[in-house]
Amino acid sequence: MIDKKAIKKIIASVFGLLCAAFLISIWWIEPVREQVWFIVPIFGLFRMIGGTWWKFIGRFLPPIVAAAAFYFFVGWSWWILAIVGAYMILKTLPFTLIGDSVHDSWLNWVWIWVLGYLNGIACITMGIPMGMIMTAVLISLVPCVVYGITGTLSNLPKTRNWFVWKLVEFCFGASSAVPIAMLIQRAGV
Question: Where are the alpha helices (DSSP H) in 32-160?
Answer without folding.
Answer: 39-52, 55-73, 79-91, 106-121, 124-130, 133-139, 141-153
